[in-house]
Task: structure prediction
Amino acid sequence: MLSPRVITIGNFDGVHAGHRALLSRARSLAGGDGTVTAMAFDPHPLSRLRPSDAPDMIEPWDTRARRLLDAGADEVARLEPTPERLSLAPHQFVSWLIETHRPDHLVEGPDFRFGRGRAGDIRLLQELASARGVAVHVVPPVIVTLRDQSEVVASSSMVRWLLEQGRVRDAAYVLERPHELTGTVVTGDRIGRTIGFPTANLVTEAMRPAPGVYAAVALPGDADPVPAAVHIGGRPSVNDHRPRIEAHLLDDVGPWTPPASMPESGWACTLRLIGRIRDVVKLDGLDRLKSQIARDCDRAREITRHQPRSPMRTPENA
Result:
């Protein structure tokens, strides 16, 4: 008997709790000797159809692919939204999928749409696939309880909305992990150094949350993780309104000291956003600015020292 081949299709941006539920079901169907393939559209199809309506990308492709593999996929196939692919009618898309990839099982959520104009729904997928001998398994939505006790469906759009509001702790509930900003440290204007608070200036493709000051765990290069106070947005206190990501890396009592072998810039860094400290505000005078940054650093140490417990799904979706 041939090993089962299981496919799940989607955008999978953020690889949140709902996506992992799909991969968990796919993994159970494949068993130990089968193959799970996650087929992910990249970039988002709206970037080709209606670019002005295309959503922000939560994380870049390489990170998304790695998370899909970590969540149970054996392989990740990138689906480019070409005009030819987007023009396929629902029955043509299913025919292409089955003839090209030969799945035994398809795993999707109840709101799955496919084909030209998103005309196909999960019922049509079941009808078309079953006629070709392919089973379709529907995984119910994952419901997540946020900090204010509201219940939401885990979705990429919900993650984006929470990040846009600066609600990084709630976003972590939907993602089942802190949102990460991964990128490269570049040379800044060194204003932080002159006032005793040197910063690592990060360039990243990941979606940044609303402007504010955040507590994070930083992974600087190959060094051990350290707490960080992260400023995201403009700097009205120095009349600089260009959006930035500036991370002040910390040790127990003061600024983090990088290894002597680490260059000033050009190294990789990941910031795991744990909680929001405050809004970005204009502070008058250097003494007030330094005092506020010191309080931000103390708060960042406190928040990262007592990180919130892992978010829980509702019992029916646990």
